[in-house]
Structures are given as structure tokens and as C-alpha cells.
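[User] At your convenience, examine this fold.
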Amino acid sequence: MPSFPEIMHRTLFRTLSLLSPAGQGLILRRYFDWRHRVPDPWKLATDSYEQQKYRSTLKHLPARPYRRIIEVGCAEGVFTHTLATTYPDAEIIGVDVSARALARARQRVPEDGRVRFIQADILTHRPDRSFDLVFCSETLYYLGRHERLRRASAQLSALLEPDGVLVAVHPWPEATRLHHYLDSHAALSRLTEQVYQAPPRPFAVAVYGTKSV
């Protein structure tokens, strides 16, 4: 059960989603720049829970080579670094709305032609290529209400190659609501979902593929 501060936090972002996508994106950029006024505000690099979540996420990937990977909501690049190490031959793009977070991500994982970072948000980003592996972790609840979640699901689906894999990781049981929009998208088919109930914060890892035409 979410704590009262978490509930209020989510309520705030649902209210922001009443704005236009551009207006919502502007406030989210300012909010996350403010959060990243100190390095690694969520302790992604040092918290054992976060590290376990990364390991659990990778465990659910279909075993295959991945050539192009995109991480939506990469923050300061902690998981991006893990991806770059796990898939040394893949092109990897990290996307985040916060310029301050991306500056630290570039220090953690220097851009070298194989790894690069882009400032953008999922609601308005228009990529110039598709990907065979897409990650979206701890991101969708910031988008708020249902219309924005439908739009985000369409955007995530559009990132995929025809045989691509999408991985969504969000708190449980809120993941039921958030992943519902991915489940409902005509182009996506859920392959697996695993719920991790262990404290301090249960989460779900859902893996999607593209539907055959």
C-alpha cells in the first residue's frame, strides 16, 4: 500500500497532466532539474534494493542479441551503465527530461558513438530510428491521467522494431493500472510479468513484444 506522501505525490502529477503535453513537459523538466540539484537523489547507484531491481529486470529479457537499446527515463545513467556493460556491442540511447541529470549521466557513461544521451520526454519525442529493446522503468506514473498514459503507450510502441521487446518496471500494485495501457495497445502483446513482493517496495517487471500482423 502506498504511503500518504506517495499518494499525494501521485495526485500532484495527475493534476499536472491536465495541462497540455508541452506545458506538462516544461514543469516535469523543471521538477526533475530541481530534484537533481544533488547527485543521485533516489540513490540508484548505492541502494541495494535498486541494484536488485536492475538484476531482476535483466533476468526477464528474452535471450537474444540486441543491437539498438533505448532507456526512457534514464536519470543519471546508472542503469544505462549496466546496459552498456551487459551489451557491449549494442548502440544505447538514454532519454530523460532533465538536463542536469543527463550531465551526470554523461560523466558516468561517456558518450563514445555507441552510447549517447538525449534530452526529451516520452510524450513528444520523435526518434529518428527504431529499437529492438526499449526500457521504461519508474516513469509512467509521472504522466498522470489516462489520456497521457495511452499516448505514452503509443509512443513506446512506436519505438519498437517489428520484433522488438519492451520492458516496463513499476511499483506494485500500481503497475496494474500503468501497464493496463500497454496491455490494451493494439501493437503490443505481453510476454511475461513477474511481481516481486519483497519489501521495501514491491514492483512488477512486464515484458512485451510486438504483435504479428
